[in-house]
Amino acid sequence: MSLTRRSFLGMLGLIPAAQAMGVPNTNSDTSTGTIPRRKFGRHDEMFSIIGFGGHTLALAPTVEDATSIAHYAIDQGVNFFDNCYEYHDGRGEVWMGQALAGGWRDKVNIMSKVCIHHGKDFKHPYTGSEKEIALQMLQEQLRRLKTDHLDLWMIHEVKDADVAPAYAKGGVIEALVEAKQKGLVRYTGFTGHDSPEAHVKMIEGGFPFDASLMPVSVLGNTLHAKGFDTVVMPLLKEKGIACIGMKGFGGSKRANLHGMVSINQVINYALSYPDVTTQCLGIDSMTFAEQAVAAARVANPMTPEERQKFIVSIQARGGADYAMHLQPGYHDGACCIA
Fold first, then answer.
1. Count of Cβ atoms closer than 10 Å to residue 102 Cβ
2. Which residue of 265, 297, 328, 331 has the smallest Cβ count within 10 Å?
3. What share of the chain is helix, strand, coil (3-state, %, to 5)?
4. Please, which residues bridge with residue 213 across strands?
5. pTM score of the predicted model
6. In the prediction, which pLDDT does 49 show?
């Protein structure tokens, strides 16, 4: 990574005026190794155009299988791995920590997410304000992942009801600030599955987020998630916030198994949006890992015209039925299932 922990600590407290103002992202593709990379929002770092999701990685048959998948991906140039506090009651982070031990961790950017959910029955052992709970979670996440810092710490699955408490005194955003000041995280952000409105509220709240994870899926375009590309993406670009995509297969690889979309189409569709830095994929087998790497190597982003034609074809074939994360009452608890 271009920014070492030591140099990062040396820059704490020096927040450029451009960051506060939200300099537009001047994204460009650059090949590094075998997997192309894109600029990370307003920052100079380059992230691989595909990232591997920790929820699905922990669905591999064994931790040894998950480790082999992770090592293969890194050797091929993947440098972005996602995770979350609540994935499989912690197993997602524990397995990733084991997989990245022994020097592998220094080759990747690890993103994980803090879980502060309102109106949802989410159990955890911590007490105190949102800020205090979040910081306690972070310590456990660092222990599980066997690292002294996260490269990107995100507020998980933000909905409309989460925005005001996040910005309130003692809210989770104060935890982001403190964690960054202490060098426990390098970048901060938030994620959301189904509410473009919540994304807009979080961004317009004024905090200088570095990244946002959201659905970037042709299947999502068949329902209300289409507001993510027409409303949220331009706002992210204006603020210089990196866009990280998820739900390429609509929350389930069954869309692939049924021939609705292929891995090549998922990647080429996502990259047709110039400001998408990385598309997160759910990888639970070496076979699918190899397919994803092969597709990323020959990535050929769709033109806007090709993208629109693709969207229309998916709509005509009933693509909405495969956008599982948008079905009423559906909750997979996983940002990066394929």
1. 11
2. 328
3. 45, 15, 40
4. 191, 244
5. 0.86
6. 98
